[in-house]
């Protein structure tokens, strides 16, 4: 049984244990732990003792070296890098994941104060892009296109084409995932899927529009 399967099995068969409980114990977003327990995010070696302590049962890690990371994916680069190597690290390393992007106009990720809840491998469409990031979808307003908890990769320097998905950042930092339609001098016309509909967002309230370039 793989490492993440062991953890999930213990949680599912032990009264009083839950994914939410593990997330709270580790201080992680619930979606991060959900991805961990389904093999979409590797466990870091430093997390294993904490997970064992929460579970109250040992884990069999023999022969499991490929199942977990020896260092956090957001580790700082080693010292002594040349300027060019530093640039390559910044533009080619893992990208931060912010808590969530809501599909509705109520609640959502705040990119100004947003908590980095995970680090994930850079999407191919983000190669060479500075300040690339990803978000976890929170609401169900873009289902079945995006489901709550799904990972969405963002290109911070590209606006979406008409009919393509985007993350809209408001001046107050809130962010929403929508389908971009068009814009005028005063409004940005967007659509959502659940419930299906279109709406105008005043441009005076919008800080930026980012193209969605991948999902996971």
Word description of this protein:
This protein is an alpha+beta fold. It folds into two domains: 3-69, Orthogonal Bundle (434 Repressor (Amino-terminal Domain)); 83-215, Ribbon (Umud Fragment, subunit A), CATH 2.10.109.10. It has helices at 3-13, 19-26, 30-37, 47-55, 83-92; strands at 43-44, 68-69, 95-101, 109-110, 116-120, 133-137, 151-155, 165-170, 174-183, 187-193, 196-202, 206-215. The strands form two sheets. Strands 3, 4, 5, 6, 7, 8, 9, 10, 11 and 12 form a ten-stranded mixed sheet that branches. Strand 1 (43-44), helix 4 (47-55) and strand 2 form a beta-alpha-beta unit. Helix 2 crosses helix 3 and helix 2 (19-26) packs across helix 4. It is elongated, with a radius of gyration of 19 Å.
Quick tags:
Umud Fragment, subunit A, 216 residues, single chain, 10-stranded mixed β-sheet, 31% strand, two-stranded parallel sheet, 434 Repressor (Amino-terminal Domain), 2 domains, alpha+beta
Q: How many separate domains make up the residues?
A: 2
Order of helices and strands: HHHEHEHEEEEEEEEEE
Topology-level CATH name of the largest domain: Umud Fragment, subunit A
Percent strand equals 25-35%
The gross shape turns out to be elongated
| Overall pLDDT score | 80
The CATH class of the largest domain, by name, is Mainly Beta
Biggest β-sheet strands, sense, barrel: 10 strands, mixed
């Amino acid at each position: 049984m793989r490492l993440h399967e062991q953890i999930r099995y213990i949680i599912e068969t032990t009264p009083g244990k839950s994914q939410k409980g593990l997330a709270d114990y580790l201080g992680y977003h619930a979606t991060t732990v959900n991805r961990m327990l389904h093999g979409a995010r590797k466990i870091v070696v430093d997390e294993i003792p904490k997970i064992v302590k929460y579970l109250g049962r040992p884990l069999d890690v023999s022969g499991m070296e490929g199942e977990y990371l020896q260092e956090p994916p957001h580790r700082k680069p080693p010292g002594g890098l040349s300027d060019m190597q530093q640039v390559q690290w910044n533009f080619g390393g893992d990208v931060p994941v912010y808590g969530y992007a809501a599909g509705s106009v109520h609640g959502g990720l705040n990119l100004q104060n947003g908590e980095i809840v995970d680090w994930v491998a850079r999407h191919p469409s983000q190669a060479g892009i500075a300040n690339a990031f990803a978000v976890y979808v929170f609401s169900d307003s873009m289902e079945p296109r995006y489901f709550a908890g799904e990972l969405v990769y963002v290109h911070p320097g590209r606006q979406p084409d008409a009919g393509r998905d985007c993350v809209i950042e408001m001046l107050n930092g809130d962010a929403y995932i929508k389908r971009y339609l068009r814009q005028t001098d005063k409004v940005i016309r967007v659509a959502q899927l659940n419930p299906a509909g279109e709406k105008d967002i005043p441009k005076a309230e919008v800080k930026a529009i980012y193209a969605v370039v991948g999902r996971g």
